[in-house]
């Protein structure tokens, strides 16, 4: 049972057993459960063997046998009782003057560093920053974003930044709350990761219009694309594809209009007799992925 604040909180509990495979075989479930608790938490566990009457102490996955009650009390006191040191009572004046020179040195270094960093102030520069996105929900696909980049006005307060136009500044927009459709999101100053001494004073435009669509999967028929004609008197009897279909993933509005995907072209002018070729599947649209890594086996049967 689990006792919390003097009351039974839970009963008939199963405790996690130790993951240590090197424990002696004579240790039973009681000891293995006690060790398991200390492997998963900062608990201190006392175990009493029912068969041998031995008392053991476990902490951090280690087992220690305790010979006497006095030794057990001493170990528990050593591990659990924290002695709070008595603070020396000092007046306000003594606290201010204590370690005076180290304090003055630290204060001087801070002031000098701040003066060096802020010696150059007020440099306003306009740069172009592309937009990127993160945390897009798995059930939707990003179809379009307008604009693709924004103009950012930067105020430079630090001489450590030699040329703000050389900074790799990107607006990273969080799309965690986006659903399928079109929405307008604000571009905030904290969407930019900037070095110390550079702040954003303006963004133009200050919003981005994001269009997303529901992500779906669809099985499409494989069509073998051919170019040219068979040489001589050869005639094309049949063309086969293996597999006959592949699974695709993309926007619902795009996949709803598709029924087939094509392979890379097979040039019939190079075929002299019935042959089996391999061709990769081509993406039917820019936002559609082919969930098939292999190549299509194309059978060209002539007569």
Task: Spell out the blueprint of helices and strands.
Elements (H helix, E strand, L loop, with lengths): L1 E3 L2 E4 L18 H12 L3 E5 L6 E5 L2 E5 L2 H12 L11 H6 L2 H18 L5 E12 L5 E7 L2 E8 L14 E4 L6 E6 L11 E7 L2 E17 L2 E2 L8 E7 L2 E7 H4 L4 E3 L3 E2 L7 E5 L9 E2 L5 E7 L1
Parallel strand pairs: 6-9, 12-16, 13-17
Antiparallel strand pairs: 1-2, 3-4, 4-5, 6-8, 7-12, 8-11, 10-12, 12-15, 14-20, 15-19, 18-20
Short description:
Helix content is 17%, strand content 39%. The protein is built from five helices and 20 strands. The radius of gyration is 36 Å and the shape is flat.
Q: How would you sum up this structure, described in words?
A:
With 303 residues, the protein is α+β, with helices and mostly antiparallel strands. The protein folds into three domains: 2-80, 3-Layer(aba) Sandwich (YojJ-like (1), CATH 3.40.1700; 123-205, Beta Complex (RNA Polymerase Alpha Subunit, Chain A, domain 2), CATH 2.170.120; 215-302, Beta Complex (RNA Polymerase Alpha Subunit, Chain A, domain 2). Helix content is 17%, strand content 39%. The protein is built from five helices and 20 strands. The strands form six sheets. Strands 7, 10, 12, 15, 16 and 19 form a six-stranded mixed beta sheet that branches. Strands 9-6-8-11 form a four-stranded mixed beta sheet, with no helix packed on it. A three-stranded antiparallel beta sheet has the order 3-4-5. Strand 4 and strand 5 form a beta hairpin. The N and C termini lie far apart (83 Å).
